[in-house]
## 1
Amino acid sequence: MFDLGSRPDASGHFGEYGGKYVSETLMAALDDLNKAWQKLRKDPEFLNEFDNDLNFYVGRPSPLYHAKRLSEKIGGAQILLKREDLNHTGAHKINNTVGQALLARYLGKNRVIAETGAGQHGVASATVAARLGMQCVVYMGEVDIHRQAINVYRMRLLGAQVRSVTSGSATLKDALNEAMRDWVSNVDSTYYIIGTVAGPHPYPQLVRDFNSVIGREARRQVQTQFGRLPDALVACVGGGSNAIGLFHPFVDDTEVPMYGVEAAGRGLESGQHAAPLTTGRVGVLHGNKSYLMDDDNGQILHTHSVSAGLDYPGVGPEHSWLKDSGRAEYVAIDDKEALDAFHLLTRTEGILPALESSHAVAYACKLAASMPADKLVLVNLSGRGDKDVHTVAELEGIQL
Amino acid sequence: MSQQYRLKSCFQMLAEQQRTALIPFITAGDPLADASVDIMHALVDAGADVIELGIPFSDPMADGPVIQLASERAIERGVSLHTVLQDVHNFRQNNQKTPVILMGYLNPLYRMGFAQFAQSAAAAGVDGVLIVDSPPEESVVLESLLAEAGISMIRLVAPTTTAERMRLIAAEATGFIYYVALKGITGAGSGANSDAESGQRINTMRKLTGLPVAAGFGIKDAESAADWAQLADAVVIGSALVTRLAECKSSEQACETVKSFLAPIRIAMDNVT
């Protein structure tokens, strides 16, 4: 079921990217995890159980929806939405947490931890922990706790403990640091559910494997519904899990261009953004080598995006590889463009997108406008926007 | 005097005297940007055999809150890898004998460029480098450049390290081995107790490498230092010292703090061996 291609290599590298840049205390746990995963990703029984959970718990397959009114309004190519927002818990994140929870159970761990930015991965982790009766601790930056209050309460309802992280910029990167510290301290009892395709090997691979159901379905659906492959793929990129999930099954379809959309925040020239692939350079952060945003002394920069889920200075190593190889192109959409797309999709299609996904929608609209009406632009609508209603209202000066 | 010689002769002398090395850790640039060199000399005066100097990093994943906050403060003050190397250079003007180990994370070195780092560190008088997030598997290039420059890449061994990995680590090791005394982050509250299993691991690494083994992480006072001095060839004390230094308002106060904090630890360790 999973593409058993050659990337990453046996040591966890995508070209020069990826690897295992962690402290010695975690090396044995990563080796165990890697051994288990290399076996399970080919184990029919495990894959069958994962498939069943995707079908009956997550609610897959998610539809591929032809956004006709939006396409007409843009006046160019046809825009197709892969509706990950319709998944249980409202985003693609659940694909990965369902898979990793099965993996945690297989490894005999009864405590799971997770980091979260927008709160979607935290909710998805708390959800699977509740379902399997596991203890769950979610680390979340203080800034994000404020802007995603509803998701924080959802996690608590699900029985998870949400721990506020105040160090550094008090956002996703700091939550990841804190989760790593917890894991180092409780490595015997605890499974760390990383929410994106970053972190040390084998996480970039296994998170990709679990999310690549998005691209496999989309590839099948577009062929069934339109009789051919799309003319472009578009997905937003924070750490990059929804984008890799969509892109990976299309990597060998070299005639299909792939666009990853980063957060340009207040504008690339302002420095207040979260676009490491567009503006950054190679470095080492959170267990892997990849593009990142740092200063000339190698200190990681604070990032800004209106969407908490994209507010991250690093990116998964496979994206760095896709960028350098030219197979994918990375672009950036600023806060305002994303907000405009949020409103546009809501008003034309009755679909409220997550602010993260709104970045992808914004770029897809730009791209579609430059293409003829018989072309197909397939966008990953990675999550729904209910969680962002307060943020949008606040930005527009509306008191709820 | 070549760098590797400095570490070697330091541990040789200690072995002859049957003493355990005391290795205090301080974060460069904390509590004051320009007091680190004075504090280093004070550490030596208070009985330090080797100095571990922390390179501040914005995202110190293996460190507890004490060293995280010290790093954040130091970065605020403009401390960087460049200024850390300058500190070592200045320290060497008056001390040619005490080995200095830099401890930190990979990205600042990567940004400077490994070759330039190795060259600058050697010129400044650095003896060893301990990079928390650079295990042997990912360190081939850095390690060979450091070796050419005569600098040891200090290897970590953890309570979770398997026998197979211990052999891998031993094959590359120079200087000394750093045994992580607890499964956790630096300065963990409950502290670390020595146990039979740690003793075994320390012995195994000694046999595999012929190198001295230092214990660190969670060792915080005279009692725990004496406890680990029974097993290890060196004891590292970090967060407990950094906590006390954080409260100091002047270089003089910091040097006084170093003396009063390390004196009972030195005595307790010397009474063991």
## 2
Amino acid sequence: MQFNTQVVSPVTPLMVCTDIELIAAHDNRKTVGKISVTNPRMRCRNVNVFYGDKQAINRVNLDIGRHEVIAMIGPSGCGKSTFLRCLNRMNDTIDSCRVTGEILLDDQDIYDKKLDVVPLRAQVGMVFQKPNPFPKSIYENVAYGPRIHGLVSSKSDLDVVVESSLCRAGLWDEVKDRLDQPGTGLSGGQQQRLCIARTIAVGPEVILMDEPCSALDPIATAKIEGLIDELREEYTIAIVTHSMQQAARVSQRTAYFHLGDLIEVGETNQIFTNPQHKLTEDYITGRFG
Amino acid sequence: MHLPTLLFILALLCVFSFWIGKRRALIIADGKHCNLHSLPGYYGYYASLWCAIPALVVLVFWTGFESSIITTLVSRELPVALQSLPSDRLNLVINDIQNLVSGNIVSGEIDPAMRAAADHYQHLQQISQAALTVVVLALAVLGLLLAYRQIHQAQRARNWVERVIMFFLISSSSIAVFTTIGIVLSVLFEAIRFFQAVPISDFLLGLKWSPQMAIREDQVGSSGVFGAIPLFAGTMLISFIAMLVAAPIGLMAAIYLSEYASKKMRNITKPLLEILAGIPTVVYGFFAALAVAPFIRDSGEWIGLDVSSESALAAGLVMGVMIIPFVSSLSDDVINAVPQAMRDGSYALGATHSETIRQVIIPAALPGIVGGMLLAVSRAIGETMIVVMAAGLSANLTANPLQAVTTVTVQMVTLLVGDQEFDSPKTLAAFALGLMLFVTTLVLNVIALYVVRKYREQYE
């Protein structure tokens, strides 16, 4: 296969050099590693994403298994966040964005024209880089999702959902006495756990996390990472992170993206100890990124 | 020397000072900026400010007091016969003298004494002008020399210049404050004069407004009753109707513009909406009086209602249309200012567009929206022209929007238009009303600030 000339992101001269070296090492950027898993939760095939004329994601194939944490790593602008946002169609909110290819959630094509995006986003929740609690009370923040989806019929049911979501997000003990206070009054780490509780309250199957700890201090980060580990028992989690240590700590599989291509995917241990692709090796050994 | 010429020379001197100050600094520093405390330009400004400020201060005070001092001097020289006149007659004579000097038409015949006084006046004026020129220029040069001598390497010219600039900024902002204080005081004193004639309780609690005072003793039907409640009730009624129109329409227009409209649509629609705010209120007024009020009357008759041809409803409706842009424009801005992260968070939970708007965006934007609404209310309360033309002048105390009512501002206009005596309670009532109106708007603004701050504390 020919070297793909559709390199989309602006490249620095240094990176161009690296690419030229790599042409010698690998004649193509076909994904290295095992992309498929048995009985996956989500299955992505030939996914391309365009912003206007610019291609941001180039023919990505990737499976996301059940009850696993998959980490997506790569240098800034490599398309990992864009790919993550494809998984619950958050890219729909960007006018110029166009997605082609096939993304299946439990064998249902989420880009099917007939599919309603509302239940999809209830199944595939998302936690953002910066904590973004609504300007409401802590209780209302968590109750928001169950209410709009009509998941509960009575106030007492809602109380139960709110309490259990906050418990699972490890926030209940800290906020149980002040549920009526604004969510924006919490600390950054608490806010992020509130956002996770809010996502859990809807009862999703998959939780997408876009650099959930990048705005947090190390202690809050440790709490969130512990939480991710616990949540794996019930949910599938896809996490984008800039911290390779974090990817190594929380994930079972890791996918390395580079300039819109999925370069390598595999067991997290193997990616960090024995990367197969030169680009992956360069990245995790800190030669660029 | 004439004032413009003097000012021009002063300006030239300042430019020269700037240049010479900067040059002096550079010479001292051997042409190296790093040897100086401040950049060379600051030394230029330093010299320039020293040159300008003392001279300008003297200039301002001199021209301010010149004419009154000369007048005093001249009147002291007048013949005893004239000086012993009563003060209002004396003022008239002095006015004539000043008119003689400036070549205007004089009220009476010119007698030699007055001619002499005028000549004296002119003479003094010339002396004053010459002295002013000398003093100002001398001060400017002196200032320049002083500054020039003071420039040395370690001199903190930047700090000095910046402090002077800060004083300019402070004085600019205090002009607005002092003007407000001045207006309030002038209204307050006139209002106090009014309350000496009419008890304040009658004014605040009276239910009848009929300000016509008898000029002659035997005049009939001019009681002069000053109960302000009908006026405030009318104002509130019309403002309420206006807000009933403007608040929902403005808010919904803002939601459409900021959330649903395409960029192109928004670029066309928003300026069009804002044109509404640019239409003169008098145009709205005759639109209300000639189109809306008759329409309301006719349609009221059609369904069997008794509608007067000037009604609170007509004025309120048109005023509501007028303030739509206030509400929509401000709300649009605050809705746009709600961070995208909020929307994303809501969408990611599976909320639809309308759920997101209702439950996340509007609550987040609420302080701004409330602020915009209260601004619109202030505007509605202060509006005069539409009400004059469309709501009538009769001070009915009624909650029926189909009847004619009048507002505070309209009554103030009718009280003060034309030739009025400024010692009768009728005219002074306008100031009392103005004071009340001022207090009302002030209270509204304070509430607005309080609301905005309260929500902001909660939600940020």
